[in-house]
Structure formats: C-alpha cells, structure tokens
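Form 12-C: Joint structure prediction
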Amino acid sequence: MKGLLDLRGRQLPNPIVALAIAVMVGFALVAILAPLISPHPPNAQSLMLRLRPPGTEGYLLGTDQLGRDVLSRMIYGARISLSIGVIVMVLTAMVGVAIGLVSAYFGGWLDTIIMRIVDIWLAFPFLVLAIALVAVLGQGPDKIVLALVLSSWPGFARPVRGEVLQLREREYTLSARALGVSPFGIMFKHLLPNIMPTILVLSAIDLGYNILALASLSFLGLGMGAETATWGGMLSSGRNYVATSWWLAAFPGVAIFLVVMSSNLIGDWIRDIYDPRSPFRAARNQAAGEARAARDAAAEPNV
Amino acid sequence: MIAAQPYAGRERAGALLEVRNLCKSFRVGSETFTRAALVKAVDDVTFRIEPGSTMGLVGESGSGKSTVARMITRLIRPDSGEILIDGQDIVTGGAAGKRFARLVQIVFQDPTSSLNPRWKVGDLIGEGVLVHRLCPRSEIRNRVVALAGRCGLDVDSLDRFPHEFSGGQRQRIAIARALAVEPSVLVLDEPVSALDVSVQAQILVLLQELQAAFGLTYLLIAHDLAVVERFCSHVAVMRLGRIVEAGLPRDIHENPKDPYTRSLVEAHPVPDPHRRKAMTA
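Section 2 - Result
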C-alpha cells in the first residue's frame, strides 16, 4: 500500500497538468473558505442594483436579475459542486470497485448476472438515467448524490472487473490462495492495491463527470432547489439574459469548464504515470532496470 | 526466541504424500452455441512420495504436471481421485480446508509474478503466520527474521519490495513465504527454470539444506533432467495427462522406455564422455 502515492522518482507533471492541479486546489480552497472570502451572502438581494455589469463598486463579477452578487454565488456554488462531486466520486468508487472485484473474483453465474446488469445500465445514457432517478427520488443534496451514484457505478465496476480477471490468475493470487488467505483477504489486501492506479484514473475523470452532471441537473431545474446557488442553476437563469447581461451565464460556464477540464487532465496524467506503454514510464522502468542490474552484479557473489 | 525458529518443537515435518487415480478435465472453446470440447489434463495419475524424500515430475509443456501441482495445493479441485497427506484427504473439507494449507505449500516458477509487487518482503513472508495465527502479532517479526535468515535473506531485506531483488533472492523470498506455515510437503513448480544456471545451483542447495533440516517432502516439477537426476530419489514422466514412466532417475536416464523420455534424455548434454559413449553405443 505504501509507495502507491509516492511520486518520488516519477516525472513531474507538465505545465498544463500543473495548471490543472493548481485550478483544482484553488477551487477547493475557495469552496472551503467560502464564508470567509465571499463579499456578500449568496442570497442577499438588492433590487436597486440589478443586472450591474462586472466591475461595479463592491460587485466584482456584477449582479444578477435579483441584484445578488455573482461572485458570492459562484463561491458558494463551488462549495456545492466540489463537495457533491467528491462525495459522489468516493461513493461511486467504493460501490463500483466492490461490485467489480466480487464479480471478477468469484466469477461464474454471479459474474454473468452482474455484468448483464452493467450492460443494461450502460445502455442508458448516464444523464438520462440520472434525470430519471432524480425525478423519482425528488430534490435535495442527498437525493442527488444517490441518483448520481446509482447511475455511474458501472463505470467503475466494468474496468475493475476486467483488470481483476487478469490479476486473479497471477501467481501471487494463487500463492495467497494456497497459503489459506480468505477470498476477501485476497480481494482487499492483494488485488485492491494492484488496481489502485486504475481506480485513481477513473476517480479523477468521474469527478469531472459528476460536476458536469450536477450542473446539468441544476440547469434543468432538477437538483438543489431554486434557493441554493449552483453553477448549473446560475447558468440556467442567466440564459434568459445572455443577450444583455452576458456575465450571468459566462462566469459559471467558465468555472464548470475549468473544473471539468482540470479533473480530466489530472486523470490523464495519472494514467500516463502508471501506463507501462507511456514514454515516461518506459524511461523510468529502464532506469530502474539498470539500477537493479548494477545492484545484482554487485551482489552476485552472495546471492 | 526458540519459538520463533521455524518448525520449532517438531521432530520431523515430512509427511507421506499419496495421490490416487487423480483426474481432471477442462472445457475448452465453450461458447453460448457451441459445445465445449473436454480435454483430459490429468488422467488417472497415481504416485506416492515417502516422507522426507523428493520425487521429480517431468514432462513436456501441456503434459498436466502443473495441473497436478495445483490440485495438490488445492488451487484446482480434481474431478475424481484422492490426495492424501499422512492419510488425510485434503480434497474434501471445503471451507474448513484452510487448515490443509499448513500441510502443503507451493513455490512457483517465476518469483517475479508469485510475489505481490505492492507488498514488502517481510509482510509477504509473514502473511501465512498472520493468516493461520501461528503466534502472537508481536512475535511475527521474530519468526519472519528467523525464517528469512534460514533461507539466506538478511534482516534489512524485509523492509524492501520484491522488485528490488534479483531472481535468486526473490525465489528465496518465495520459499520462505511458503515455509512460514510449516508445511510438511512442498510442491516446487519448476522452481529454478526461470533462473540463471549459477543461481539455480544455489537455490537447489538451499532446498536440500531445508529438506535435511526439516525433513520436508518435495514434489519437484521440472523439465530439466539434469536437475531431476541430481535432486530426486524418484522420477515420474508425464505425457498427455498420464504417467508414462516412473522409477529411479538413473534407470530412466540410462534406459528410457517412453519416446518422449528418450527425446528428453537425448536433448540434454552429458558432461561425462564415458557415459555419453555408453549411451550412444
């Protein structure tokens, strides 16, 4: 387990990835510090100052049709987007990975049934499924989380299953079985650490999807309720004023774009680190191989 | 410290391994609409290995020798037949079969793939001790150190990862890992064929030392007759799932009856010119 996230000796992220990480960290800080840095309460209205453009005194990003501060609503929107995105990501990963592991490890009829369910699930577009579930479950953050987890777990289950199918035939799995380790011991102590790279990549990309899905649901009016400031909701209500007051829709749109783009870039970067065919990885392996050969040569007399 | 020694308090660990009428078939090419063909991987295999001795199981690839190894270590369930260790049938027992893991262990061919790359060596060796609760948690480290020392590994290797070691060292780790649960029978599935020739000899010497110390019973699977001849008291030759020939290594070497055995003997160079002449004459 240790050494898994140990990035020493791995190549440093390229500038674009560094920027993506900075964007994510920046949004996370904004979300955490929202009450401290937000210039106004997100729902404070002042009807005298409606639809003021960015740069108005005290309203850096302008105000909306009810005279609420766009910047403050963006800041609180980051809170909702990131927290729901991360919670959904963690829960989806846990559910999907557990199902994929069990399906692949035990195999047989259980695997067949689970994979047919996955096929059925994936036949529906992700967002359509999420919309249907929210419509059934109702509004509110907990319902949204449930709906998103229920609609996206196969995205983890299928790739995890594929990888475990290979790993369970590896000799180290056989060796653990011969040693008398229980199936759950093998799954969680032996196989899980070895599929961690895959899980990390899937998680990073899933985070982007979740934020986009949350924005889409809010845009459609399915989600947190009209009171709550969300990027999707701001985008939706700003749509009516886009010809006259571009800032209402533009800033939430840019925020969604930045966060989704960043999480995808980070996901790609993690994949590149672990992909044996990636050029960085090849160079690293070669260096490690040479170091090992040198050590072996030195150690040969007392092997 | 005495309790930390491997096999402490056990006079001789070796046990009698008997295999009777073992059969295993595999389905191949099973699709939804096509009938699966049944391939007999192991067909009515019977042998016995005396406590503390070594039997070699030789055969070309696909002859079923590895399937036999996996059935003896309970990784594959036989279709029929018995596997007895000191008279106990280890095939039956189901989930309670965990205790049989303490009777028989396996060392695989390639220690690169038989050691989990994300585990430290000390944890790999100690896993069996932990799983079978052979001693209090606080004692595990001592046991692992003692066992590692026995297998020629030093203490500071325990906190490193398998990929930091050479092939020979890794096979020592795999051997220590298998011996941690104090098995009576050790199945060696081509334990040296992935190693350099110079390292092969060292691993074989280690295995002989361990056998002498603990009285282990070995089943050595190999395709190298030179290794088998030096290491085993008996040899069985498998072909297409059956044992086609069995006996003392020297007899088989000098008078191979089965065509496959003959080609195996002929393929392997004899370093002694007198014997080589006698063979060709």
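Section 3 - Comments
The mean pLDDT of chain B is 87. The longest strand of chain B covers residues 37-49.
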